[in-house]
Every structure is written in structure tokens, then in C-alpha cells.
Specification:
- This protein folds into two domains: 263 residues, ABC transporter involved in vitamin B12 uptake, BtuC, CATH 1.10.3470; 336 residues, ABC transporter involved in vitamin B12 uptake, BtuC, CATH 1.10.3470.
- The longest helix is centred in the N-terminal third of the chain and has 31 residues.
- Helices cover 67% and strands 4% of the residues.
- α1 packs antiparallel against α11, α5 crosses α6 and α15 packs across α23.
- The chain is mainly alpha-helical.
- The chain is built from 29 helices and ten strands.
- It is globular, with a radius of gyration of 25 Å.
Length: 672
Amino acid sequence: MNSYILFLLLGLGSGAIYAILALGLVMKYRSAGVVDFGHSAVAMFIAYVYYGLRTEGKLELPWAILPHEITITGSEMGNAPAMIASLLYAAVLGLVMYLLIYRPLRHATPLARICASVGVLLYLQAIAVLDFSSNPKSVPTILPDSPLHFAGVIVPVDRLWFAGLVVVLATALWATYRFTRFGLATRAASENEEGAAVIGLSADRIAASNWVLATVLAALAGILIAPIATIQPASYTLFIVPALAVALVARFQSFAIAAAAGLILGMLQSEVTKLISVIHWLPKEGLPEAIPFIVIVVGMTLVAKGMRARGEIVVQRNPSLGRPSRPYVTTAFCFAVGAIALVLLQGSLRFALISSFIWICLALSLVVLTGYVGQVSLAQMAFAGVSAFALTHITGQLGIGFPFSLILASLAAVPLGIVIGLPALRLRGVNLAVVTLSAGLVLDSLVFNWTWFTGGLGGTKVGNPSLLGWNLGISSGNAYPRVIFGIFVLAVVCGIGLLVARLRRAPAGRMMIAVRSNERAAAAAGIDVNRTKLLAFALSSWIAGVAGVLFAYAQQTVSPPTFEVFTSLNLVAIAFVAGVGRIGGAVFAGIMMASTGLLVTLLDREFNIGKYQLLVAGLLLTITAIKQPDGVAANPPPPLVHAWKWLEGRLFDRSETPRVPPAVAAGAGSER
């Protein structure tokens, strides 16, 4: 029994971090209406700032390439001065981020806000890797950590300090927002901006002040956890999932509930870690990370109505949609151009082109789900991963050959897509994005760590596809990558593109667009909203599953890192930049996709920019969310504008006001 108590108390450390981060999320949502996915990335970056000051006396600036360090002391800085300097730095960073990014997005769509915050996450993570590398960094202890004898166990006293600090912060914030003029002004501005302006309150100034305080809280959490968990970009940014779970339990309103829920969640995760060692049939990997997903699903289901997550009648501008004018001509043209490019390119460039084809397929899954229906999914790579690993079992253990193996493996993602899509019956926008992000994280940390399913870190080999004795694989002897495999991938992707184009003009596609415009009006027009959403999730997950199978054939060895959750974030980022409502945008997204896309490979070969891919992606995503929410495909910048408009009008998509039933159009807001 003593060991169970020990693990409960040890969980106070991580629970306190979740609670402090959640307090900041509550402040941001109450003041600016933003659920900030980059909140934990800010905590990570400030932790690195603290690390630089504490170990070398250097102040880290939030950019790369240019000089990004300022020497303050030239030697180690004391703990107190380093913390004070880091928190002041966080305050300035929070103000700058609000003024440049989040204030222009105060009245933007939920998708634009999500993508902007994901852009911040990618940017800060890239800066941390470029300036500090991805290796863990350690700092000396901050809080007292002497052993404490309690209930027959020995516990580091810093865990109790963490819990006490959370209680103090939550109490101070509750009192501030309940009894002070600043708190009353925040509540007034969040409930009615116009009414607050009438009595002389500036909603922008109030939101900026709250944003600064929330950023300082995130910085405090990042600094305090550094001596316990070490500083590492990937682990820090993933703190956003449990922090969101805690904030959701608190309905993004209550500081007291956020503090209590954070501590309880940390203790629960720690106790599950103990149970794993005792109960042998429990999964050994990823189970503690699955707990926030359960909390998120339950919390979202219970509080969705209170957060205005369902079909409310609001005026919002969704990303514009393209309308394919000549889908068959477009498909034939794209196939011809792609086939010629495959023949002309060699080596790594040919492989990059094949990879771009597969990324186009994944981006098309987002066109269906996010573009046509307005549902945000951050779990597309999880769908692709399930199908890729299913292929290894279908071909290896069941002995089913191509093309039936491709069909069955891609269909394996459909039940998962429907299950993850069930919350969409109550949720939409940012709330659904939170659920899909956490679901993707659970699949990444739990399911993809099942050795029997994935083969472990070494992965599982996949045989070449063959049809009637004809080898369609990517390699044969010394030939790699083969043109015939590229033609096979191109044919599949062109077929998917034609399907998505035809869907746009079909009755099912028109119902999806009607649901995107206004759910209540669509229901009044006789459209089954729930069935339409689940159909979109099923179709989107199937398309992502097809892409996962193509990835498996292209890589020949399928391993979990290919389908990690951050790749889904990167995919959404690039798809939004390219134009998530257009098939032409999916083509742009596949070409621009970081790591293996054709454009990045070309630029890396010519200018050696490979290590700056995530940085550029995050920056472009944030700028696009603010300045050009329809994406590059809708408004290509000069000097490509005339050439792209010519292609768009004749081969790809042309913008057109969606034709929806009159009852739907009446409540469609400013839909284009």
C-alpha cells in the first residue's frame, strides 16, 4: 500500500504542471476566446531561455540564422535572477505574440485560430531544435527537493511545493477575477465587447493583459518542470494534451476546478504507471498517455453545450471552396504531367515526387473532411498508420496479395475514423480538433507501441505489390526508385482526386457543404447532419488509409515514427497554407510538404535548407492564417497569379458560391 501512496504523491509534480498550463489556457479562452495549441511550446521555449541564462548567462532570442544570443554575464547566472529575467522575457513575448498573431484573429474562424496556434507550436519547436538541438537538457533544482517521510514512504518535498504553488496561484487568480476591477472588466469584455466599449473598456487591452499573464504562467510551468523532466522539444510540446484535458474539465472557466483536475490527473497517471508493473495484462507502453484522451472525450461530451460547440447560428467565414469545372480533363492532364516528370527525374528527386503524390492523397482526405464539412482532424497520420501496419499483417500473416491487400488495409482505417468521428456529432471546430489531437497521440503512444502490431522501432517489412506476375514495387535489383511504382501511385492518387472532385458536385457533397454552412439550417432542410458527418469521417479516413498503404509500399519497412502525431500537425499546417477547401490546394500541399516533398527536396539540394523546414512551415502557416485564410490555391501570390488563374479556370478549381438549399443559405453566414 505504501508504494501506491508514493506514486500518488510523485504524480503531484506532473499534475502541477498540467494545472499551471491549464490556468493559462483558461485565461486565454476567457479573455480572447482562443484555445492555444502552442501554449506548451511557449513553456518549452522559455525553459530553454532559462537554461541559457542559468548555465551560460546568454539570452536566447526567438529566431534562427540571424544572431540569436545576447551575452548577459558570460558565466552561470543565479537561480533567482535567471527566473526573473525569464519571466519578464515571457511577458514581452506574450505581448508581442498577441499583438502580431492573436489580436488580428479575434474574429477569425476557429480553423484559422487553430492553424495559427499550430504554426506557433511548429515555429517554436523548430527554433528550440535549431538553437539547442533535440538532446535533453538538465538544470539544477529550483524548489527544495530533500526527502520527506510521509505515511511510511519517502517523497521528494518538491512535489508538495508544486501542489502548494498551484493552490496559491489558483486562489490568487480566482480572487483577482472575482473581486478586482481587472477581473470584472475581463468578464464584461468577454461577454459583450461592444457593451464594454460603451463604458470605456478596451477589449484588446484587456485581452493583451490576460495573454501576458497566461504566457508568464506557461513560462513558470516550463521552468519548474525542467529539473524533473529535463528540457526536450517533443516532450514539452506534448504537455498541451493533458493541459487541454484539464482546462476542458474546468469548462475553460473555473480556476479552482482546473487546479484540482490537474493535480488529480497527474496523480492518476502516476498511479497507472504503478499498476502497469503490478497487473501484467495491462499495456506496458502508452497507457498513462491514454488517460487524458479519456478525460477529453468525457469532458467535451459534457461541456460542449456550455462552450457553444454545437451548430450555433453564428456569422463566420469558412475557407473558400473550389468547384471542379472539368474533373476528367484535369485528371488526365495531371496524370500525363506526373508520368512525364517521373520519367525525367532520377534518384532522390523521383522519390520525392512519389512522396509528394502520397502527401497529395493525405491532403485530399483533409479536403473532404475540413474543406467540405468544416470538421478539423489532427489524426490523419494515425489513420494512415493503422492501414500501413494492417497491410503488413494482411500480406504477411494472411497471405492476401495485391490489389485485395490494398483494399482491405485501407478499409481498416474506416472503423477508427468513425469512432473518432463520433464526438463530431456534438462537437465542431476547436473542440473537435482537441479530441482528434488527443486520439492521434493515444494511437501514437499506445497502439503504435504494440510490438506484435508494428514490429517495434525496427518496423515490419512490406513486400512489393505485384499484379498478374508484374512487379509494381519501388525496387527491383539495383533499380530504385522505379518509374512503374511511381505510375502506380500516380494512378491511385489521380483516382482519389477524381473521386473528391465528383463528390464536390454530387448530392452527398452538397449535403456536406450545407452542414458546414449551418448545421441547424441543414437539418431543417431535411439533411441528416449526423450521418453526413460520419460519412465524411469514414471517407476521409479511408483516403488517409490508402495513403498509409502507399507509404508502406514506398518505404518497404513500416515503422511507428513515420506516423507520429506531429506529422499530422505539419500536414494540417501545409494543407491550410495551400488551401484546404480546394483540390488544387491538396496538390500544392503535397508538393510543399516538409521532409520528403518535392519542393523541399529541391530547395534542400540547391540551398541546403532541410533543417529549416518546420520553422518555415510554422511561419508560413501563421502568416497565412492571418493574411490569407483561403490558402495559396485560392489567391496565388505574384508572379504566379496569372499562370495559376489560367490553370485554375481550365484545369483545377474555380471559386463559386456553393449552391445549397434556400433554408440552408438563410443561415449560412458569410460562406463563400
